[in-house]
Hints:
CATH architecture: 3-Layer(aba) Sandwich
Number of helices: 10
CATH superfamily: P-loop containing nucleotide triphosphate hydrolases
Largest sheet: 8 strands, mixed
CATH class: Alpha Beta
Bound molecules: adenosine-5'-triphosphate, magnesium ion
Order of helices and strands: EHEHHHEEHEHEHEHEHH
Amino acid sequence: MLIACWSVKGGSGTTVVSAALGLLLSRDAAGGALIVDLAGDVPAALGMAEPPGAGVTDWLAAADDVEVDALARLEVDAAPGVRVLPRGSVHEPPTARVEALAGALQADERPVVADCGVGPGFVAQALAAAATRSLLVVRPCYLALRRAVAAPIRPSGVVLVEERGRALSRADVEDVLGVPVRAVVEVDSTVARAVDAGLLAGRLPAELERGLKNAA
Ligand SMILES: Nc1ncnc2c1ncn2[C@@H]1O[C@H](COP(=O)(O)OP(=O)(O)OP(=O)(O)O)[C@@H](O)[C@H]1O
Ligand SMILES: [Mg+2]
């Protein structure tokens, strides 16, 4: 199962949602879960040291004889039952191998969550197209919703990162985008503090657990 998380505006909460989903899914998966980091913030969000070696963008930039099996050798341990495939060092990776990557991640026996970052760029589009679920992480923000409507792909569902006092409701978001809101996560200072302190992996805040339990 591949879940692709993406956004249309920076700072929406995509990395936090992706990391939390990976942690939650790992609890019920005997073989653990994998978080694929295409945006570069997942290790920091999980409170890990920056992985020093190559990552998924290096694999995308590698020659054709570097096979999909090589991806597993790039993974690092993040938490009990959770591995991260780090972003790596190639700034704008070539796209010729993106479909092979998407196929390999979708075929993985573990639940796989990809933090596709803001865009969606070409890599995110290919992963979203192959994914079991393509989740747009968005705040109830008019400017973000305009961008989402104009995006080159349509998500299969929305994770709404809800801020108190906003005029736009869940129903407005569903109405504008024409897809269901699968999860609502409140903006909660305990979440921000857990991320800042590097404690997300050790003690997942209750708000993330409650909000995301039906997202996958
Ligand atoms: N539910 C939440 N409650 C409170 N703060 C949150 C929540 N989700 C994310 N944040 C905070 O908001 C900021 C942005 O979150 P995050 O990095 O996950 O967004 P992003 O969409 O991945 O951003 P980018 O576009 O830079 O990749 C961070 O400081 C994070 O700690
Ligand atoms: Mg991010």
